[in-house]
Design brief:
Number of helices: 13
Largest sheet: 8 strands, mixed
Shape: globular
Bound molecules: iron/sulfur cluster
Strand order of the largest sheet: 3-2-8-9-10-11-1-12
Distance between the termini: 34 Å
Order of helices and strands: EHEEEEHEEEHHEHEEHEHHHHEEEEHHH
Radius of gyration: 22 Å
Strand content: 15-25%
Helix content: 25-40%
Structural class: alpha+beta
Length: about 375
């Protein structure tokens, strides 16, 4: 019986972005820009980061030479899918001088994103749970999300900062994508997940995939999982963290933390935002939303009081909410193990280390 997995031969890879464009999508993929990897518009597969790798460690992320014949031999860059659905800054509505409000829906055509990782698919499911909650859907998020087609890549080169195995989210892309891709010597192995992915796959000049190469590709992903060394001390740290709100480690980490918010900006699941009114002299006004962070002073300002006045309280809020409170709100931890907050923290603070130190002795078994 056929596995449904098809081979797009190396010489025909361009057919994938071409098919997506023919279906009306703007095609995005990882590109090297300003020394980092970020999603940008692809004019062809030549724009992908062929031959590039990534070296990551606490407080460190560098592009390095990778494998020339591979475009996805690295784990992730600082950018997740978040800014594609939840804009870092946007005007939500404008009001006329007479007070009439006009919403500003997001412009742009549907987008197909090539090279999405398992951790970012899991993060997107969490953003969906927040922004698409029945009864209070965010129309700006919903409009962008509806037009998103996702081509996932099963991860084979985890960074030293990755720990998606311990959160249960990777490195294999298991849900939330339309097409999944394994990078092999002969080309890309493709598997459709759902009708939209099947429609794309049907347009491609694929061949039947050799079962041995499919098994070799799957084995490479299993090997990638086995290479991950970081882990959280458990998937549900609610009780352990909330029982340790006075742990001395909160003050110790606050001595290093700069409260810069870099971790929350790169985190694919952080959704906190602030809103600003921009009134003009002619009586019109624009109402804008921008990303915010629990590390800022204003984030906990309520009626003349800053509820979290110091870095100790803000770091504790970040960790207890992310690894504890999310279980109550969304039924799971808010961490998908992408490791971005570790690599992009200028103080090299590692949340797996902090969680382990604070939860030590809590009896949390590793999953
Ligand atoms: S943990 Fe690191 S990235 Fe996050 S606010 Fe503190 S210094 Fe910045
Ligand atoms: S908390 Fe850190 S490792 Fe977890 S999802 Fe956010 S950025 Fe990734």
């Amino acid at each position: 019986m056929s596995s449904g997995i098809r081979l797009l031969p190396r010489a025909r890879l361009e057919a994938l972005p071409e098919a997506l464009r023919a279906l009306g999508y703007e095609v995005l993929g990882p590109r090297v820009e300003d020394g980092i990897l970020r999603y940008g518009s692809l004019s062809g597969i030549g724009d992908l980061p062929w031959g590039r790798g990534v070296e990551a460690a606490p407080g460190r992320w560098r592009l390095v030479e990778g494998e020339p014949a591979r475009a996805f031999a690295w784990a992730n860059g600082p950018q997740a899918l978040k800014p594609l659905v939840f804009a870092p800054e946007e005007t939500l509505w404008r009001s006329d001088a007479d007070g009439r409000v006009r919403p500003e829906p997001p412009a742009g055509r549907p987008r197909a994103v090539l090279g999405v990782r398992a951790c970012d698919l899991a993060a997107l499911a969490l953003l969906d749970a927040h922004f698409l909650r029945p009864g209070c859907e965010d129309p700006w998020y919903a409009a962008r999300r509806a037009g998103l087609l996702l081509v996932a890549v099963h991860c084979t080169h985890p960074a030293a900062t990755c720990f998606c195995v311990s959160t249960g989210d990777g490195p294999e892309a298991r849900a939330g994508h339309d097409l999944a891709l394994w990078e092999t010597e002969a080309g890309w192995l493709l598997e459709a997940a759902g009708a939209r992915g099947a429609e794309v796959l049907a347009r491609l000049p694929t061949e039947e995939a050799d079962p041995a190469s499919v098994e070799a590709a799957r084995a490479e992903v299993r090997a990638a999982a086995a290479r991950q060394r970081r882990a959280l001390p458990g998937r549900d740290l609610r009780e352990a963290l909330f029982a340790r709100l006075d742990h001395p480690r909160w003050a110790r980490v606050a001595e290093r933390c700069l409260a810069c918010g870099s971790c929350t900006a790169v985190c694919p699941t952080c959704f906190c935002h602030a809103t600003d009114e921009h009134p003009a002299l002619d009586g019109t006004s624009a109402h804008a939303r921008r990303w915010s962070s629990c590390f800022t002073e204003r984030h906990s300002y309520i009626h003349g009081i800053v509820l979290r006045p110091d870095t100790r309280a803000r770091y504790r809020q970040w960790l207890t909410h992310k690894l504890g409170g999310w279980h109550l709100q969304y039924g799971r931890s808010g961490c998908v193990g992408c490791g971005r907050c570790i690599a992009w923290c200028p103080a090299a603070i590692d949340l797996t280390e902090e969680a382990a130190a604070i939860c030590a002795g809590a009896g949390e078994a590793a999953p």
